[in-house]
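From the pipeline queue, job 12 of 40. The input is one protein chain; the requested action is below.

Action: predict structure.
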Amino acid sequence: MTFVQLIECRTSRLDEMNRLMDDWVQQTEGKRTATHALVGRDHSDASHVVEVVEFPSYEEAVRNSKLPETDRIFRGLVALCDEAPRFTDLDVVREDRLSGDDAVRDGRPSGDGVRRFFEALCAEGELPPLNDLLDEDVHSRDPMNPQDTIGLDHVRAEFRMWRAAFDFAFTVEDVFAQGDRACARWTWNATHKGDFLGIAPTGRRVIMTGMTLFRSGAAGKFAELWWQHDQLGLMQQLGALDELEQ
């Protein structure tokens, strides 16, 4: 469940607070679990400042709070406040995305959303939460798996497996959309750096082509993914078929 933390304080040093937040964003790149942060100043009381920070879950918020960079920035934040900041912890029970560059617009997959999805899979550092792109109950269908992968946590675990085995990048060649579905044709370039299906790291550069079909859900995020890719060609490039060919 999405979790939001509300931080309220009084300060006359908003510019310094903004610079402090910039430092935190830079220092926690690839490590933070916060997905969205917003700072607002009370229109009728300029000293009243409210920060809203969103996380995929309460557990992720706890992980974020344990980062040493978060602790240092928090102590700096307190020093800039005229009084002790107030915290409110919120479990999100409803979320409506009414406009903007979402994965899905008006119930239809967005080409920008599809491209952002592939960019997120290749992001440096920790895999992003993806909760802004995928439903909590997302279904992912990959011919390499005997069963569907169901649920955001399990889908992210599968993506982490690929990231642990390869350094890779996607090139999205085409995106076509119709109704509640979009299809992306892509090229995947990678270096084999870790164990993959029992194959020890080879250091080989490999390439794979494929397509992914996306279906949008009622929540304005991708609800289903269908993957098709040249898995036989990949295994051949990794040398897994050498013995069979002899």
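Job complete. The helical segments are 14-27, 58-65, 68-80, 111-121, 152-165, 231-237, 242-245.
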